[in-house]
UniProtKB/TrEMBL annotation:
InterPro entries named among the record's database cross-references: F-box-like_dom_sf, F-box_dom, LRR_dom_sf
Domain F-box, residue spans: 10-52
Coiled-coil residues: none
Name used for this protein in its record: F-box protein FBW2-like
Top-level taxon of origin: Eukaryota
Alphabetical list of Gene3D superfamilies matching this protein: 1.20.1280.50, Ribonuclease Inhibitor
Biological source species: Gossypium hirsutum (Upland cotton)
Pfam families (UniProt xref): F-box (PF00646)
Protein encoded by which gene: LOC107899865
């Protein structure tokens, strides 16, 4: 007990260790509070250590497109090619998606709900998304079968796909079986597939089941033309099917994580289970609400205009 124990000071922790700690803080604090403490902490939050997992999905739903573009540019640049997870909603243009693809060599989880990306840009850059294992393109109205086919042909490791739509977004379509067939013919390793409210047929779903033998979760809530029974799917021993009937439409949410899926949720029409879905495809990390665009202006000013940390006064405005 008399031995000397060498405890390291906080300010001597190596940057990647600090990054592991800081990335558990809310986004606003990482960008506006931590860098004002000391030079070492600023180095940690301006390097790639805090930006391997970027989740600004909640924040991005409440900001202007130009503000989102600047934030995305800044954070992706900081990741320095080490980006493993990116969650962002409402990309306003193809350029932002191209930026993501240019920095996707380590990217595994990509969530882009409600984004205005096009088939053409997805076809152009899908080859750079080769390491992606989970993809969310829900409510992306401007893409269809061509984009999904390009993704399937290039993302050979893809295990989870979320392609949920709002009923009003497909009201003018006759069928989306072409999307289902694109999934069936190019994504054989899928384990999780969510296609709620797509206008697909029983034939299309059976084609998916036939060509995706590893499928463990299939969400077809709101796919009213799909008629399945126990005889149709009993040979798929590990499969859970959700839908097509919806018990609580307005409370409906996507299954963010297979391991968190519960058969008691009230959404199950069938639950023919001969095995549990236990792999994590998509973890949720909440950064909290950050609605003040002025905070983004403060971040940019302090990081790009030579903020003097030695004489810093921690007095810039923060949103609630």
């Amino acid at each position: 007990m008399g031995e000397n124990v060498d405890f390291r000071r906080w300010d001597e922790l190596i940057p990647d260790a600090l990054g592991l700690i800081f990335k558990n803080l809310p986004l606003q604090e990482i960008l506006t509070v931590v860098p004002g403490v000391c030079k070492l902490w600023r180095k940690a939050v301006t390097g790639p250590y805090c930006w391997q997992d970027i989740d600004i999905e909640q924040w991005s739903q409440q900001c202007r497109p130009e503000t989102l573009d600047r934030m995305l540019q800044m954070l992706i640049t900081r990741s320095s090619g080490s980006l493993r997870k990116l969650c962002v909603a409402g990309l306003a243009n193809d350029q932002s998606f191209s930026l993501i693809a240019d920095n996707a060599k380590s990217l595994q989880t990509l969530r882009l709900p409600r984004s205005e990306i096009s088939d053409s840009i997805v076809e152009q850059v899908a080859g750079r998304l080769f390491s992606v294992t989970f993809l969310d393109v829900s409510y992306c109205r401007n893409i269809g079968a061509p984009a999904l086919e390009a993704i399937g042909k290039n993302c050979k490791l893809l295990m989870g796909l979320r392609r949920t739509m709002h009923p009003l977004e497909v009201i003018d379509k006759l069928s989306q079986d072409d999307e289902a067939f694109a999934i069936a013919t190019t994504m054989p390793k899928l384990k999780q597939l969510e296609v709620a409210y797509l206008l697909i047929s029983t034939e299309a779903v059976l084609k998916i089941l036939e060509n995706c033998p590893e499928l463990e979760l299939l969400d077809v809530r709101g796919c009213w033309n799909v008629k399945l029974d126990e005889n149709c799917i009993k040979k798929f021993t590990r499969l859970k099917v959700v839908g097509p009937h919806v018990v609580d439409y307005f409370g409906m949410k996507g299954c963010d994580d297979c391991s968190n899926y519960s058969g008691s949720s009230g959404y199950l029409a069938w639950d023919f289970v001969a095995g549990n879905v236990g792999s994590d495809y998509d973890d949720e990390i909440s950064d909290g609400d950050w609605e003040d665009d002025q905070s983004m202006e403060d971040v940019e000013m302090r990081f790009y205009d030579g903020f003097d940390l030695d004489n810093a006064a921690f007095d810039w405005p923060l949103s609630p």
